[in-house]
């Protein structure tokens, strides 16, 4: 087995990890905004956000990446970098799903906690920041870690549309070079497993530790 080919797979793995981290960082921040907007007392804000979530959940990630990559060029703007386009598309995608996950967890906080914070004379933002968010995000930790597994696996879509170099793309290139699909796709699968399995295991541990299922 050529070590240069192994190095190519590891380079692709780094591309996968980088895109996953960027997606979780920006998608997480966007998802928090979405979650807060979904429980906003302003109905217009809540309904617009709900419509956005439904639209994004009904749009294939492949199509979304195509729009983010080719859209600027079609509008006469400068073409974007593949990593930027992939990160932008996956941020929109992850933000919608994480926002809905976190919205459910925030609404799962007992109503008595809202009422107790209100009795203390806290403003809505103070109630949210000091009382509700810490409890809601604690409930959201296991499903959030589990969703990270989906983010890692969905990075493989980036190579199909924007030509971003990640693990599955490099495995395909090596297969076209060596005609050994079982070997290199198998190795790529093992590398995906090496990244995703610890996340899945950690999600189960957190669920047991936080006892979320019994709340």
Top keywords for this entry?
mainly alpha, 82% helix, flat
Produce the secondary structure layout.
Blueprint: H1 3-38, H2 43-57, H3 61-74, H4 82-107, H5 111-119, H6 124-154, H7 158-161, H8 167-178, H9 181-210
Helix pairs in contact: 1-4, 1-8, 2-4, 3-4, 4-6, 5-6, 6-9, 8-9
Find the CATH topology: MetI-like fold
Report the β-strand fraction as a percent range: under 5%
Low-confidence stretches are none
What overall geometry do the principal axes of the alpha carbons give?
A: flat
Distance between the termini: 52 Å
Task: Give the number of DSSP strands.
Answer: 0
- Listing every helix as H and every strand as E from the N terminus to the C terminus, the arrangement reads HHHHHHHHH
Integer tally of domains: 1
Describe the sheet with the most strands.
none
* CATH level 1 name: Mainly Alpha
Structure class: mainly alpha
Fraction of residues in helices? over 70%
By oligomeric state, this entry counts as single chain
User: If helices are DSSP runs of H or I spanning 4 or more residues, what is the number of helices?
Assistant: 9
Architecture (CATH level 2) name: Orthogonal Bundle
CATH superfamily (homologous) name: MetI-like
Radius of gyration: 20 Å
- Mean pLDDT, nearest integer? 88
């Amino acid at each position: 087995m050529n070590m240069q080919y192994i190095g190519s797979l590891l380079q692709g793995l780094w591309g996968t990890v980088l895109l996953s981290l960027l997606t979780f960082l920006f998608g997480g921040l966007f998802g928090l905004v979405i979650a807060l907007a979904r429980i906003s007392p302003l109905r217009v804000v809540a309904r617009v956000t709900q419509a956005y979530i439904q639209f994004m959940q009904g749009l294939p990630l492949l199509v979304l990446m195509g729009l983010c990559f080719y859209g600027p060029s079609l509008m006469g703007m400068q073409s974007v970098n593949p990593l930027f386009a992939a990160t932008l598309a996956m941020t929109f995608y992850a933000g919608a799903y994480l926002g809905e996950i976190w919205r459910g967890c925030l609404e799962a906080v007992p109503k008595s906690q809202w009422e107790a914070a209100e009795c203390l004379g806290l403003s809505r933002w103070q109630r949210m920041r000091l009382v509700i968010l810490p409890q809601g995000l604690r409930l959201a930790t296991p499903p959030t870690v589990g969703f990270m597994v989906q983010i890692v696996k969905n990075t493989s879509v980036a190579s199909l549309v924007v030509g971003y170099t990640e693990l599955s793309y490099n495995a395909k290139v090596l297969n076209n070079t060596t005609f050994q699909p079982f070997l290199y796709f198998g190795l790529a699968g093992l590398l995906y497993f090496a990244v995703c399995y610890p996340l899945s295991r950690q999600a189960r541990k957190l669920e047991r530790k936080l006892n979320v299922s019994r709340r």
